[in-house]
Design a protein that fits this description.
Helix content is 38%, strand content 17%. The protein is α/β, with parallel strands linked by helices. The structure holds 3-phosphoglyceric acid. 3-phosphoglyceric acid (3PG) binds next to loops.
Length: 306
């Protein structure tokens, strides 16, 4: 019987685990569950004798891959796979996949939710502002960016995008105005919703040059990764502009300084919450389980990223 480890430091909703189990049961695969683990050693032990593994933002390092004896496939139940050591996977002949699109609506709803919250002064009792009629710039028009655009249009926002890799016709068909440079996007839009992946090229790429260009009440909404922000330069923008605001799904390293000095101009989630809905957990978890079965039984490598 093939064994599938679901290793989630931040667990899926119980309904998602139940549905993953159902899919695996049908294929006669066994579910091995490791949730809320607090020490890496628990993961190293759990991975030893399984054939496949599903994770979220859990770090799948070379050490984890090397601790496995039978591992054939690792699924990142989600979009960003910066937590997987792809070289280590490839070196051990382990296929790595993500589940693109499955949790995107949840992340997009959080991005818009954080925009509303900061526009209303985090519900502090004072008069805030509305989103209608404001310009929002989508930085990277992938699955999440596209949902943000759809919802923002529903709110009556003017939607712009910058993404050199996306099909221009698709953006146009969505009624979104595509700009040619990131500089143009940041200098045009009061709200920027960030959706770039974290990789060697993008880490620390969002800093003073772009953020200082934003119009009055410039607000950066980060549901991507904290690593893409140049935090030293972020602090410089906070210090130089008393209208700049930053909301982020995850607390930045420099949160203490922001909290101390810039009250009312930020909102940070304590844990990554973008994909933390029952629906997103079910979509991504079940897709992951199906991808494992389809790979092991039929060799389907559609969502392979290594
Ligand atoms: C993703 O890349 O899919 C999101 O950041 C969600 O991450 P999570 O599964 O750790 O919540």
């Amino acid at each position: 019987m093939k064994k599938v480890l679901v290793a989630t430091e931040k667990p899926f909703a119980p309904a998602a685990v139940a549905q993953i189990k159902e899919v695996l049961d049908k294929a006669n695969y066994e579910l091995v569950l490791l949730e809320k683990y607090t020490d890496k050693s628990e993961l190293l032990k759990a991975v030893e004798n399984v054939d496949a593994m599903i994770v979220r933002s859990d770090k799948v390092t070379k050490e984890v891959i090397d601790a496995s004896n039978n591992l054939k496939i690792v699924i990142r139940a989600g979009a960003g796979y910066d937590n997987l050591d792809l070289e280590a996977c490839t070196a051990k002949n382990v296929v790595a996949m993500n589940t693109p699109g499955q949790n995107s609506n949840a992340v997009a709803e959080l991005a818009i939710g954080m925009m509303i919250s900061i526009a209303r002064g985090n519900y502090n009792g004072k008069a805030g502002t509305e989103l209608r009629g404001k310009k929002v710039g989508i930085h990277a028009y992938g699955n999440v960016g596209r949902y943000v655009a759809q919802i923002a249009k529903g709110f009556g926002m003017d939607v712009y995008a910058y993404d050199p890799f996306v099909d221009k016709d698709l953006v146009k068909k969505d009624g979104v105005i595509q700009l040619d440079t990131a500089e143009e996007l940041y200098s045009t839009c009061q709200y920027i919703s960030l959706h770039i992946p974290a990789n060697d090229k993008t880490k620390k790429s969002i800093g003073f040059d772009l953020l200082s260009k934003m119009p009055k009440n410039g607000t950066l909404v980060n549901t991507a990764r904290k690593e893409v922000i140049n935090e030293e330069e972020l602090l410089k923008v906070f210090a130089e502009r008393d209208d700049f605001r930053y909301v982020s799904d995850l607390t930045p390293e420099c949160a203490d300084e922001i909290k101390e000095k810039y009250e009312g101009r930020f909102f940070f989630t304590p844990k990554k919450m973008g994909a933390q809905t029952a629906e997103a957990n079910i979509n991504a978890g079940v897709a992951g389980a199906n991808q494992i079965i389809d790979f092991i039984e039929n060799g389907n490598t559609t969502f392979k990223v290594n």
